[in-house]
Amino acid sequence: MTKIHKFVSLKDLHTFKLPYQADAVVELTAAEDLPSLADDYYVLGEGSNTIFTTDFSRTVLKVGIKGYECSETENSFELRVGAGENWHDLVRKTLDADMPGLENLALIPGSVGAAPVQNIGAYGVEVSEFIRTVEAWDREQHEFVLFSQKQCCFAYRDSLFKQHAGRYVITHVNFSLSKNWRAQLSYGALSSVPGDASAKTIMKAVVAIRNSKLPNPKVLPNAGSFFKNPVIPRQQLQGLLERFPDMPYYPVDDMQVKVAAGWLIDQLGLKGFSCGGVSVHDKQALVLVNKGEASGEELLTLAKEITSRVKTRFAIELEIEVRIMGEKELINA
Ligand SMILES: Cc1cc2nc3c(=O)[nH]c(=O)nc-3n(C[C@H](O)[C@H](O)[C@H](O)COP(=O)(O)OP(=O)(O)OC[C@H]3O[C@@H](n4cnc5c(N)ncnc54)[C@H](O)[C@@H]3O)c2cc1C
């Protein structure tokens, strides 16, 4: 049953673990309850891509809809999964049941319902490849809607749900896992995995790589990549390469390239750089960590300092990837 709690600490509801509270938290366990809820809430999954930088004077709707149904056709396994299921548990469950496909996306923190929002991706694979439809509640039209894969407008870390932030509450995601499975090992870090490896072996390799590279939010609170990798015109790249010949970049199209935000921050010697209780991770410059007792103000000051130094040195404007929450709403929408 959906439950409403008043004045709830948000510390354990987001992985950066800042010590603020929300006026109320509604724990949503059934999609059918959505039409009768007062419509003034921020939708939250597991809070691994959201940071509360102050007390939140509205309601947080924590999506906890559970459920996992599985059927099969001649060519595929079809899954209907509740938005409140944990993403990595789903990956494990499918592989335990000999339904390969999601192995490259293992250990990405968060809920199933948030996965389509930014089209989670890792090691050469995006979740959109496996999504058949998404079920959601439309807060503007007050109706349940079903989006086909095409209607979700998936792109790199983007979707309809991100473009219309807050409009839809995803209740269930329907996946289709092809029985004609092929390992995806094209991504550099997985090149040492043998071509005939099973999906479970690939998952283990992905988990090992991730554990060696990224701080575990349960041990060192963080929200993953804090900044987006900036996209710049090729013309600007030429000038930068003359000054920084080692700068890594990846083509986006004929006109633009993507540069690695972590590399830019690292070049400034900012690994380990702190503002109060918030610090640039000492191994992964793209990740900011809460060393304990951090405040929202310290986080925003550090983010501003990094952005300003990157701008001065490289003339590149960094954009924050994580959803930063102010007192009433997103402040980096
Ligand atoms: C250590 C670490 C590593 C990470 N690595 C990766 C990675 O490799 N690849 C990657 O893509 N991401 C990565 N992330 C980011 C994060 O895991 C994803 O963005 C994930 O999908 C967030 O899930 P969540 O449930 O925690 O979302 P939340 O932070 O709770 O919410 C994120 C956004 O989705 C919205 N949302 C959440 N649930 C719903 C719903 N049911 N309906 C509608 N909107 C909803 C929220 O309003 C918010 O805008 C990483 C994060 C961490 C901390």
TrEMBL record:
Keywords: Cell cycle, Cell division, Cell shape, Cell wall biogenesis/degradation, Cytoplasm, FAD, Flavoprotein, NADP, Oxidoreductase, Peptidoglycan synthesis. Pfam families: FAD_binding_4, MurB_C. Signal peptide: none annotated. Cell wall formation. PANTHER family: UDP-N-ACETYLENOLPYRUVOYLGLUCOSAMINE REDUCTASE. Belongs to the MurB family. This is UDP-N-acetylenolpyruvoylglucosamine reductase. It comes from Pseudidiomarina terrestris. The gene is murB.
